[in-house]
Design goal:
Rossmann fold; three-stranded antiparallel sheet; globular
């Protein structure tokens, strides 16, 4: 890499393919995830956005092609799903469990939990059963649990779907804060307004391939691909 050049991507997907029940869902996908900032993955339903996150997270393996992460990133990837999956424990106990899984010593967890609760604005709810919280509060718990691992790469699969504006704003603040701290964030979203507010780059997926990748302002002002123009115009991508 030339001196002063951009850092290498944290994750690289090359000619990746995934087939389910005879249908090619990811079809020769090439994608680079940058070392920092927020990348919005957009596209119609079935484009392969959520599958792409699972490939990067190592939850599924490609049947063709390769998914490569920098060595220092491989154990520092966190994924937040659209619907939070929380333990039948208190909010505090959910965070304590996450820290324990990531090898944080018991004596160090209390301070770490306090910091996470403050970050998520959840301190007053620490003793509440996590599954009795509102949808927006549960998603903030899921975010805090993901951040407890001190990830380098944070993957978010439509984290504000079905949330009200206030809860959405709280999640978006956490996303922006994470990126400001140097994390690389990949956000799957159908919400063009959200991508405009948050994203530095946009990757548009269609039929399991990358149709366009561009800085967010360029994509929204003058998409280079026919797929991008159709998507932003609200036309069906078939």
């Amino acid at each position: 890499m030339p001196e002063g050049g951009p850092p290498p991507p944290l994750a690289t997907l090359r000619d990746v393919a995934v087939t389910r029940r005879g249908v090619r869902l990811i079809d020769g996908l090439d994608l680079d995830l940058p070392a920092c900032g927020i990348t919005a993955l957009m596209g119609p339903n079935g484009a392969g956005k959520s599958l792409t996150l699972r490939l990067v997270a190592g939850l599924i393996a490609p049947e063709a092609g390769r998914v490569e992460l920098l060595p220092e990133v491989r154990d520092r990837v966190s994924l937040v799903f659209q619907k939070p999956v929380l333990l039948r424990r208190s909010l505090r106990a959910n965070l304590d469990h996450a820290l324990a899984v990531h090898g944080v010593r018991r004596r160090d967890r209390s301070a770490r939990i306090a910091g996470l609760l403050a970050r998520g604005g959840l301190g007053d709810l620490a003793a509440r059963p996590a599954r009795q919280l509102s949808g927006g509060e549960q998603q903030r718990v899921a975010m805090m649990r993901a951040l407890a691992a001190e990830p380098r790469l944070l993957l978010l699969d439509e984290p504000t779907a079905s949330l009200d504006p206030q809860a959405t704003a709280a999640i978006e603040r956490l996303v922006l804060d994470a990126a400001a701290e140097g994390l690389s964030v990949v956000l799957v979203t159908h919400d063009a307004g959200q991508a405009r507010r948050l994203a530095d780059r946009v990757g548009l997926l269609h039929r399991g391939r990358l149709a366009e990748s561009a800085p967010a302002d360029r994509f929204f002002e003058a998409p280079a691909s026919e797929e991008g123009r159709a998507y932003l115009a609200g036309r069906l991508l078939i």
